Amino acid sequence: MTIYQNATLYLLGGFGALRVECKSLTIEVKPYHPDRGEITQVTYIERGKRKETKRGYREPEMLVLKGFDHPEHDAMIPSADGRGDVTKFASFDKRWKPDFEQQFRVYVAANQIQVLEIHGLNLESEVIVKTSPKVELIAGDRAADKHTRVLLDGKEVFESQDCYEAIAVANGLKARYE
Question: Which of 73, 101, 119 represents a domain boundary (last residue)?
Fold first, then answer.
């Protein structure tokens, strides 16, 4: 059994992620059924409330961050007609999980947030810096006439003439050069 005080809990489900700021949070793995294995019981008291909430999950996809005021999962985008917002994906779409992981991988690394617990998700990150063969990367140096690209999980996230090794190191990311 693990007990946390003042933590933010994200529970990923078929409709995106539920964010709960908890003044008290307990996570406990219990036997469920001889044929069905264990269940993870999540018990919390939401910030600003007194009533305790219990939920049980067989294979939870959850993230617990230290403290409050962390962002919501970016699940909404503007509608095509401009009259409101719609969800990024349909219910139970397999893209919810990688979308959530990508958003919080960058958020946790950039803000040096302490991850207290993680289940069923992967926030490990690596920045791949691809350069032309003539560019030598030196932290803090400016490659004035060279082109540098930085890829995160195979997707280009920066495109500039600046050297991004310093950004990767400052954010606690592993840099690999190709």
Answer: 119
